[in-house]
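Audit log entry. Action: structure prediction of a protein-small molecule complex. Ligand: S-adenosylmethionine. The ligand was supplied as SMILES and no pocket hint was given, so placement is left entirely to the predictor. Protonation state taken as written. Sequence taken verbatim from the request; no trimming, no tag removal. Recorded inputs:
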Amino acid sequence: MNIFHGTIHKWGLQNCSINENYICLDIGCGGGNAVKAIAEKAIKGKIYGLDHSLEMVNLSRKLNSSLISKGLVEINQGSVSALPYSDSQFDLVTAFETIQFWTNLEKDLKEVKRILKSTGTLIIVNRYPPEDSKWSEFLQLKNAIEYKEKLNSAGFEHVSIDNKSKNGWILVIAKTKNG
Ligand SMILES: C[S@@+](CC[C@H](N)C(=O)[O-])C[C@H]1O[C@@H](n2cnc3c(N)ncnc32)[C@H](O)[C@@H]1O
């Protein structure tokens, strides 16, 4: 997983400031690469990784074992549809190459908004092939307008989208409040 999905999270993370005290969640954390990268920035905060696959949870725990033993990282098994976290718990939520698997995007985005602080940020990075590509439909990839519509109706009022600067990829930054 970490070899195949590699380092795309770095692009997303370059585009957001991560305060050292941030409480962060990486949804669909896979092998745990992004959790580790975020933990290097939020050194006084706490990073959670969540994946519905036990295999991925175990991989993520293995990669982040020393951070887990220091209490800086926690990896949980669960679904984005019923996040095992409190309302307004997180400063930053990330979703790297996972959103196309979410079964009810609008409802799931509302669940993400529930656990974000009012000042919090959601970052989505996903593949973005040409819209006439057969892969778009097969992979259920959204276009920029669909992302914005779904996020707005889930309560994210400020949505910025970059589908130009990295060929084949889209970066979405969504906030409930500006700033
Ligand atoms: C393509 S992998 C990406 C993994 C990682 N984010 C990365 O970029 O390397 C997608 C991940 O999302 C997880 N996933 C899919 N649907 C999910 C859901 N509804 N809730 C939580 N995790 C989910 C999968 O188990 C898988 O680990």
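Audit: result stored. Residues 105-115 form the longest helix (11 residues). The two ends are 34 Å apart (CA to CA).
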